[in-house]
Design goal:
single chain, Uridine Diphospho-n-acetylenolpyruvylglucosamine Reductase, domain 3, Uridine Diphospho-n-acetylenolpyruvylglucosamine Reductase, domain 1
């Protein structure tokens, strides 16, 4: 069963109603791999679309589509989120996973986040969110349901921001065509400083970006491109892109993911970590 709650009151009521039953709370669902057998319980979404801009402060609800937030801030001549154009999903999920692209992540602009847990509504500042690369406290404390966030951006030129955003969207659509059935990059990139010295010396400087090594670099060396299991394939042009070519299953996604993790572990001694979440 899928249930939407558009207000905090409705969300509280829904959580009270299902707290003793199996349930899962999701955002827009863009970074999820759902089981082939479905979910034996209630899948709940918080769909509040509230968005208010006051100068450089933006108050945005978790249910706002991330692209709508990007477009609104660009139109308001606010710089910061424009590099995230084309990232699918909702704001709550973006904060949950500290989404980002082109050298920026959403945590850079978060002043505070309001969330609901079993004891009530709380508001915490940026530091308490414990943001890291594609991580936040909300990813570990799953009983905390993000309600909204306050972001602080900087003034910018709308035309220039839109031009940059359009250029990024063109590149993104070439890499991830809108009609492609995929969850984006499957694996997180790796922090260069956290890699064993024996691996660091093997990485060419040209592939290092903002102190990270794309997992696609190791996946390509492990022969990931073009691997197929049923209807699920690894793109022949990007080793960290797994997509459904037609008739694929979640079980086949798991099979390829496990195979790729095994290959990289055997060849480099590295443990890749998925960016996608499973239901």
């Amino acid at each position: 069963m899928l249930a939407d709650a558009a207000t905090e009151e409705a969300l509280r009521a829904a959580l009270d109603a299902v707290h003793n039953d199996r349930h899962a709370l999701i955002g827009g669902g863009s970074n999820l791999v759902a089981s082939d057998v479905g979910f034996p319980g209630v899948v709940l979404r918080f769909t509040d679309r509230s968005l208010a801009i006051d100068g450089t402060l933006v108050r945005v609800a978790a249910g706002v589509v991330l692209q709508d937030l990007v477009d609104a801030t660009v139109a308001a001549c606010l710089e910061g989120l424009h590099t995230m154009t084309g990232i699918p999903g909702w704001v709550g999920g973006a904060i949950y996973g500290n989404a980002g692209a082109y050298g920026h992540s959403i945590h850079e602009f978060v002043e505070s986040v309001r969330y609901l847990d079993g004891t009530g509504v709380h508001e915490i500042g940026n530091a308490a969110c414990q943001f890291r690369y594609r991580e936040s406290v909300f990813k570990r404390a799953k009983d905390r349901v993000i309600l909204d966030a306050t972001l602080r951006l900087t003034p910018g030129d709308a035309a220039q921001l839109r031009s940059t955003a359009d250029g990024i969207l063109k590149i993104r659509n070439e890499k991830y065509p809108p009609e492609m059935r995929c969850a984006g990059s499957i694996f997180k990139n790796l922090i260069l400083a956290e890699l064993p010295e024996s691996v660091r010396v093997q990485v060419p400087e040209r592939v290092i970006r903002e102190g990270k090594v794309p997992s696609a670099y190791f996946l390509e060396l492990a022969g990931a491109k073009g691997i197929k299991r049923g209807g699920i394939e690894v793109a022949d042009y990007h080793a960290n892109l797994i997509y459904n070519a037609g008739g694929g299953s979640a079980a086949q996604v798991h099979e390829i993911v496990d195979l790729l993790k095994q290959r990289v572990a055997e060849q480099f001694g590295l443990e890749l970590e998925e960016e996608v979440q499973y239901i």
